């Protein structure tokens, strides 16, 4: 006997059903509408890129396995599944740069892949939706991204008090790095460790970040993350910087000026944040777009303002514990990414929505945009006499020609099993025709079965008049040429 292969899903991945797919489609449509309202146009890049084109991920010893899924092609070239949508855009823009309008404003969506340890809410494949402006050095482009992020979340039905778009500037962080002695080119690796430690502030809290800035941290599973190895006085300065947010934007900017005093680059970053704050206020979004020094973003290619869209509400999980979803999007300025390919400065900024995480958050608060049930399935045309298959084909064709989703039953079961099948498909309606209906005295008819009312009928009614009314409406005959209108009426009752 041949050994059977065990069906198993790789860790960090998930199958998605009709309800999730329908919710995702509605959410991405709302995001697309917002991006297009701002004048961005659609573009698509492939899942695969040459590994060196991703910039951050270069071959490590015999295999480039630091964070990406990679393999060699038949030309012995390393290819990688894209880690995000920004690096592929930079490559695409660099190839077509001379032919593109500048600034170049585009959006794109699709799955991205992370070869990282999966966990609750952390997947190896998830959906992102990006918008980017390439070719503008104006801080107004960064402010626009923040305002658009706020507009996007509000269009998705999230109230202003339930989210915040937090803004910081990598130049401010560079100033802090200079002041703690990590400003030299050879300190790049340690700077990245510090940035990633700060980026975990919301999840780990000050004590967890303090450990990552020092010797390192052991997580709940026992895995150890190596720290930046900073001395206590440097750790204190970094933690002081992350706590610089004040009651108002003016207070925060004043605290940041004190934190980077003596660093020209840091002071330049504070000036950029002040300009963003003024533009955000002019756009009427200062209540939900805020300066926050704790935002750093984990990727190393950011060069200026960085921003993160965070959900502020909490929900109760199945275990009774509160859940806060936190960040559902982010982005920033990456002036060096396109320049890697062209050898000249090309300013760029962008914002990305984490659609998969956003779907989970909206489901948790029972957003009507998401819904909790699968969408209605197609009308099922039952096959009660296989010798009349051509006739049934004509019925399903008539429904489809009228724009009604319809399916001809192609299994081998009888009528009752076919109706159960239609229930499993979440169909609102089924069409039946046996010999009695075909040979009716006044001409052929079909029976219309309202499956939703039929389910109510099956539960039983204590009131006889209600029962009779349900029975009459749950299944009724109509002439073949009246089938389409009768089906439309039933679907109209139940959102089919």
Automatic annotation (TrEMBL):
Q: Where in the cell is it found?
A: Cytoplasm
Gene Ontology, cellular component aspect: cytoplasm
User: Where is the Aminoacyl-transfer RNA synthetases class-II family profile domain positioned along the sequence?
Assistant: 26-375
Presence of the UniProt keyword ATP-binding in the record: yes
Q: Which reaction equations make up its catalytic activity?
A: tRNA(His) + L-histidine + ATP = L-histidyl-tRNA(His) + AMP + diphosphate + H(+)
**Pfam families the UniProt entry points to:** tRNA-synt_His (PF13393)
EC number(s) from the headed UniProt entry:
6.1.1.21
The record's annotation in InterPro entries points to:
aa-tRNA-synth_II, aa-tRNA-synth_II/BPL/LPL, Anticodon-bd_dom_sf, His-tRNA-ligase, HisRS-like_core, HisRS/HisZ
Q: Tell me, which GO biological process terms does this entry list?
A: histidyl-tRNA aminoacylation
| UniProt keyword terms in alphabetical order | Aminoacyl-tRNA synthetase, ATP-binding, Cytoplasm, Ligase, Nucleotide-binding, Protein biosynthesis
Q: Which enzyme class, named as a word? A: ligase
Q: Which annotated residues bind L-histidine?
A: 84-86, 114, 128, 132, 297, 301-302
Q: Which GO terms describe its molecular function?
A: ATP binding; histidine-tRNA ligase activity
| Gene3D superfamilies referenced in this protein's UniProt entry, alphabetically | Anticodon-binding domain, Bira Bifunctional Protein, Domain 2
| NCBIfam families (UniProt xref) | hisS
Stated family: Belongs to the class-II aminoacyl-tRNA synthetase family.
Q: How does it assemble?
A: Homodimer.
HAMAP family from the UniProt entry: His_tRNA_synth
Q: Please report the name of this protein according to its UniProt entry.
A: Histidine--tRNA ligase
The organism that produces this protein has a lineage beginning with: Bacteria, Pseudomonadati, Pseudomonadota, Alphaproteobacteria, Hyphomicrobiales
């Amino acid at each position: 006997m041949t050994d059977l292969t065990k069906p198993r899903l790789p860790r960090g991945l998930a199958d998605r059903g009709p309800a999730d797919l329908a919710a995702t489609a509605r959410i991405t449509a709302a995001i697309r509408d917002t991006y297009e309202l701002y004048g961005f146009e659609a573009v698509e890049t492939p899942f695969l890129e040459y590994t060196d084109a991703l910039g951050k991920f270069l071959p490590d010893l015999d295999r480039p396995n630091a964070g990406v899924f990679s393999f060699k092609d038949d030309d012995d070239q390393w290819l990688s599944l894209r880690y995000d949508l920004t690096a592929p855009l930079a490559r695409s823009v660099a190839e077509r740069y001379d032919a593109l309008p500048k600034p170049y404003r585009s959006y794109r969506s699709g799955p991205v892949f992370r070869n990282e340890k999966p966990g609750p809410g952390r997947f190896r494949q998830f959906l992102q939706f990006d918008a980017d402006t390439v070719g503008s050095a104006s801080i107004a482009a960064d402010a626009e991204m923040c305002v658009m992020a706020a507009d996007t979340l509000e269009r998705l039905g999230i109230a202003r008090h339930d989210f915040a778009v937090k803004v910081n500037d990598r130049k401010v962080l560079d100033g802090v790095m200079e002041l703690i002695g990590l400003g030299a080119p050879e300190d790049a690796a340690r700077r990245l460790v510090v940035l990633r430690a700060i980026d975990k502030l919301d999840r780990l809290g000050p004590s967890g970040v303090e450990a990552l800035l020092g010797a390192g941290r052991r997580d709940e599973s026992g895995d150890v993350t190596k720290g930046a190895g900073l001395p206590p006085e440097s750790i204190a300065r970094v933690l002081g910087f992350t706590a610089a947010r004040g009651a108002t934007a003016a207070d925060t900017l004043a605290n940041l000026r004190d934190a980077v005093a003596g660093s020209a680059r840091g002071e330049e970053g504070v000036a950029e944040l002040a300009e963003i704050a003024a533009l955000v206020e002019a756009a009427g979004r200062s209540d939900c777009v805020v300066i926050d020094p704790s935002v750093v973003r984990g990727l190393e290619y950011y060069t200026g303002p960085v921003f993160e869209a965070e959900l502020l509400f909490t929900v109760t999980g199945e275990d009774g514990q509160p859940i806060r979803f936190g960040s559902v999007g982010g982005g920033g300025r990456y002036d060096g990414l396109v320049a890697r390919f062209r050898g000249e400065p090309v300013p760029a900024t962008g914002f990305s929505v984490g659609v998969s995480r956003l779907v989970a958050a909206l489901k948790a608060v029972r957003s009507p945009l998401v819904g909790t049930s699968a969408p209605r399935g197609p009308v099922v045309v039952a096959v009660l006499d296989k010798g009349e298959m051509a006739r049934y084909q004509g019925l399903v064709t008539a429904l489809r020609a009228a724009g009604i989703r319809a399916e001809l039953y192609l299994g081998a079961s009888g009528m009752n099993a076919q109706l159960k099948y239609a229930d499993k498909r979440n169909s609102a309606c089924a069409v039946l025709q046996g010999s009695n209906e075909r040979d009716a005295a006044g001409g052929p008819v079909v029976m219309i079965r309202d499956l939703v009312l039929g389910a109510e009928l099956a539960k039983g009614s204590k009131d006889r008049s209600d029962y009779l009314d349900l029975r009459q409406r749950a299944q009724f005959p109509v002439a073949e040429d009246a089938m389409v209108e009768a089906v439309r009426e039933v679907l109209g009752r139940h959102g089919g």
